[in-house]
Amino acid sequence: MDETKEIESTEENDKPPSTSPRPIRAWRVAVIANVKGETVLPIDGPADAGAEFDKKETIQEIQSAIESDGHTTVFIPADANLPYTLAHVRPDICFNISEGIYGDAREAQIPALLELLRIPYTASRVLTNAVSLDKTMTKRIWRDKGLPTAAFQEFVTGNEPLADDLSFPMFVKPASEGTGMGMDGGSIVYDKESLYRRIKWVIENYHQAALVEEYLPGREFTVAVMGRSDAARFSPRPDIYGPDGFHRFPLLEVDSSASVTPGIYGHIAKTLHTGEAGVPQFICPASVEEPLASTLQDLAIKAHNAINALDVSRVDIRLDKNGVPRLMEINTLPGLTRGFSDLCVIAEAENWNYRDIILEILYLGASRFGMVTPSDKTARGIPVQIPEFVPVFQNQRHSR
Length: 400
Ligand SMILES: Nc1ncnc2c1ncn2[C@@H]1O[C@H](COP(=O)(O)OP(=O)(O)OP(=O)(O)O)[C@@H](O)[C@H]1O
Ligand SMILES: [Mg+2]
What we know:
Elements: E1 22-23, E2 28-33, H1 56-67, E3 72-77, H2 82-89, E4 93-96, H3 106-117, H4 126-133, H5 135-144, E5 152-155, E6 170-174, E7 188-189, H6 192-206, E8 210-214, E9 220-227, H7 231-234, E10 246-248, E11 252-255, H8 267-271, E12 281-283, H9 292-306, E13 311-319, E14 325-331, H10 342-349, H11 354-367, E15 372-373, H12 392-399
Parallel strand pairs: 2-3, 2-4
Antiparallel strand pairs: 1-15, 5-8, 6-7, 6-8, 9-10, 9-11, 9-13, 11-12, 13-14
Helix pairs in contact: 1-11, 3-4
Bound molecules: adenosine-5'-triphosphate and magnesium ion.
Residues 150, 171, 173, 177-181, 183, 213, 215-216, 220, 256, 264-266, 270, 316, 318, 328-329, 331 line the site of adenosine-5'-triphosphate.
Keywords: ATP-binding, Cell shape, Cell wall biogenesis/degradation, Cytoplasm, Ligase, Nucleotide-binding, Peptidoglycan synthesis
Protein name: ATP-grasp domain-containing protein
Region (Disordered): 1-23
């Protein structure tokens, strides 16, 4: 808790610098995250456990960006003390980037707690964060909605017979990890024996199901998604949104052909910084012809909407052997490390500064809880409000 800042009192008539649209008043914003080296990990975890956690500097940068718009902030670690800390801090809204520590839906645990306490928070809600953590469930939904994704099979025990519709080479990964955890050159398998060996390695080391997919040999893209049908009404930058309410960022291509894990954007490759040996080549804006470029953008938005993701996400797509884009996975809590995380690199390629990214996520989130006065009441879009939400702490404070 040494990073908890002293909370300044926020009076009802505090005036933040004018932005359009405007927050109804200055907010007390809690940034909730798991910090590398500070969050206690399960003792039986794999070697790359905690890889998704954030650095202290990232949290401080998020706090600075939010404070630059006139709000006060406090950092709260996403651990078992959270309910007590929240009761003490009583934030107006939480900027949630928590990965969670335990359980099959760990990225949904903090949103679930916040909904229980009826505290507003940013980005996707409970069910979406639970589904997106589970790549198999996500692919089932996409397949059900007719969206293209590689043929796949989930292995829970590692003894299941191989489905007839899968052909080699295949790719084996933990079903519920991120940051390339459990993925390296050994993930690509060419025969049954190495397939089952790798499946068992995943199940034993990651204590979860193994997802087996057909290997996608083509170009790899990661597509940033931002917006929702009524985003322009509440965004500090309404002009960036298209008629469907989504912003089309430039595409980022990840070329892993000469990386430390050739052909795979795996865990080690994800820890390297630009300029270091073995780092993949990141190309943004990627050189992509039409109609592929629009197909990738639209596919990412469809993938985001299919699981009811809100405001922001990042969708990973690869081309199959016929050049057809296939959805790999969606990150509903995309990394936000300035100059490093894919979403930041993409936005920066379009001259967004870090503050723009953070405030966009904050304002889109806050607007769903009635905390932002729309800039133009006549603007397009159906409001995506959460009617059952009555910010409890806010009411208590006002009723005194
Ligand atoms: N079916 C596949 N065929 C080919 N390569 C794949 C396949 N699935 C995953 N990969 C490779 O492994 C990388 C990591 O996979 P994936 O995006 O599913 O993992 P992740 O750890 O959730 O990633 P993130 O860090 O984006 O959360 C991909 O970026 C891609 O390079
Ligand atoms: Mg990925």
